[in-house]
Each structure stands twice: as C-alpha cells, then as structure tokens.
Amino acid sequence: MKQLTIDILNRWRELKPQRDAVKDQLARKFSIEFNYNSNHIEGNTLTYGQTEILLLFGRVIGEAKMFDLEEMKAHNVGLKMVLSEAVSDNPFTETFIRQMHKILLREDYEVYRNLPGGVTTSYTVHAGCYKTRPNSVITPSGERFEYASPEETPGLMTDLVKWYREEEAKEELNPLELAALFHYRYIRIHPFEDGNGRIARLMMNFILARHDYPLIVVPTKTKRQYLEALSAVDKLVGTMPSDGANASLKQVKAFVDYLERLMTVEMQTDMVVAEGTGGQWWYSGGWVRFDNPNVVEIINQLISDPSLSISELAEILDINRSAVQKHMKFLQEKGYIIRSGARKTGKWQVVLTKL
C-alpha cells in the first residue's frame, strides 16, 4: 500500500468516532452509492434518483421494471446482512456466501435461449446453489474465457474459504490486499450462474468492514477500468480456472492498485463530510454546488414542503414565476428533483443528499 494511502487511512481513523449525525449521513450515502453502482454495472436500469427514493422511502418514481426494483431491494438487504455479519464473531463460511446469493436472486428462475433453426432451450438458475452448467465470458478480443467447471466449483470454493480464514489469521496481508485477492479468486471461480459480480463486491466490503477499513464503491463510470484491471491480472495468471483460483498477491497488483485508488477517494470524501468542509449537496458520486442562491432556496423549500407549487415558490422567494420555472426545469433535467403523483396533487422529491 502506498505511503500516501497509509497517511490518509491514519487521518481517516483519527476522525472516528464521528458524531451520530455524521455516521448516519455517511452510511446513507454509501448505501445509495453502493447499491446503485453495483447493480448498474450488471445492467439494472433504475436511475440514481429512483434508487435513492426506493431505498430511503420505499416508493417508486417514474417508470421502472419490476425485476429491477426487486433486485435493488434484495441487494440492499444483502448489504445490510454483510455489514451486520462483518461485526459479528461468526466464522466466515461457504454457507454465508450461498445465503447471500439466495437473498440477491430471491428465487429460482428459468432462462430461455433461442438457437438457430427455431430451437429454444432453457436452464434453471438456482438461488443459493452453485452452478450446474459451465459459464464463460467473451473477452474484448472476441475470445471465450472459461470459468471453473460445475465439477470443479465445490472444491475450489471450499479451498477459497479455507485460504481466506488462514490468511486472515496470519495477518500478513493488509485488509485491502486480502479483499482484492479474495474478489479476484472468487471471480475466476464464478461459482453461480448469475450474480457473481455483485457477490464479489459484497464480499470485498465484508472483508473491509470486518477489519474496520473504508468501504469501497466501484462506480459504474469506471466500469471499463474495473474490467481492464481484472483483465490485466488474467493475462498474468493465465486461462486455467485453477490458476485463477490460486492467484498470488503479486499477480493481482493491478487490481489492488485500482481498488486502492477507489478507497482513497472514499476516505477523502468521508473526511470532508466529517470535517464539514465540503459542498452542501451530494449526488451520484460527487459534490454539487449552486451559484444561484434562489436554486438553493427552492431545494430547501421543497425539502420542507414537497407539495409546493410554482406559484407558491415564486411568492416565497419573491421572484417571478418564469424564473422559478427555469430553475425547476434545470433541477429536473439534472435529476436533482423528481415529480411524483397527479398533476395537481403530486409532490416533489429532492434526490440530492445534504451532507
């Protein structure tokens, strides 16, 4: 780990314990960021605003696929379970990983595929059970990259958990290295037919939380770098699943470096929040600042009373109606506020998080 990261980590720890209000702010921020990004990487179509409102208020804004809504809610349950388990004295087991998978997928389901000649085949994805059919991915170069076979998977997963428990006891690897190496080894096994990426990122944060390290969000905007870091390791390790499942720390350095950069960003943001030196608003991985005080006042008024109309806002701010409409249009286009309900009885929802 770089000296700069160690220095930031020490400073991050000096700011703990934080006030309960700050802890709650940071926990809420991480929950929204992690759930949104980890699912969005895998194709979930909910917007950042829809995710926030669903997780914080249990409501659905705008059009959304029922599958995506249920997937997001289940993932949030999984995150809560991971963070709770991390502070327990329970040993880390395969059963825990399978339970997490069952929570994410919720139930078994059928996958149908159309083959040439009008033939349709199907297979069942089992929630909480290791895969029963081979899985693979097509690389950017067009080659097929095979993961561990169904026959190899149970043994490799048993070895993975055994390895983790031994390495944790030895305390030779720092928690970030341990989390990165576990993530990579797990991904090379790809033990389930669906949900492997989300499980890998949940387990990574389980390890970090277990050792009081900053949690990591893999932003969907860095998905390319995320996959490139994993691919760079693949080239060093080779294509054999058993080699991937036993990769060394030296081989996964590119992935460790990528995660270290993300962790540094998380720590720096947390410290800004804890010290109260940042911007007023947070949205989708970054600070949002407004130069126009009327925009800030509109946001504050909508937080206090979501049912306010354009005319009422214009009267409160003592500005003309067209100016309010212009500001509201800007906030809606950016996704900072969302309108729900009927035209006359609907309410505004502020998606920005106040930090």
Structure description:
The protein is mainly α. It folds into two domains: 3-275, Fic-like fold; 281-354, Winged helix-like DNA-binding domain superfamily/Winged helix DNA-binding domain (Arc Repressor Mutant, subunit A, Orthogonal Bundle). It contains 14 helices and nine strands. It has helices at residues 3-14, 20-41, 48-57, 66-86, 94-105, 153-170, 175-189, 196-210, 223-237, 241-244, 253-275, 293-304, 310-317, 321-334, and strands spanning 109-115, 119-125, 136-138, 144-146, 281-283, 286-288, 337-340, 347-350, 353-354. Strand 3 (136-138) and strand 4 form a beta hairpin. The longest helix has 23 residues, at 253-275. This is Fic family protein.
Report the CATH C-level class of the largest domain.
Answer: Mainly Alpha
How far do the termini sit from each other? 29 Å
| Fourth CATH level, the homologous superfamily of the largest domain | Fido-like domain
Radius of gyration: 23 Å
CATH-defined topology of the largest domain: Fic-like fold
H/E element order: HHHHHEEEEHHHHHHEEHHHEEE
Q: Major beta sheet, specifics?
A: 3 strands, antiparallel
Overall pLDDT, averaged?
92
The main sheet orders its strands as 6-5-9
Q: Catalogue the unreliable spans.
A: none
Shape descriptor reads globular
**Strand coverage percent:** 5-15%
As a percent range, the share of helical residues equals: 55-70%
CATH architecture of the largest domain: Orthogonal Bundle
| Structural class by secondary-structure content | mainly alpha
Protein name: Fic family protein
InterPro entries: ArsR-like_HTH, Fido, Fido-like_dom_sf, Fido_containing, WH-like_DNA-bd_sf, WH_DNA-bd_sf
Domain Fido: 92-261
Pfam family, one: HTH_24
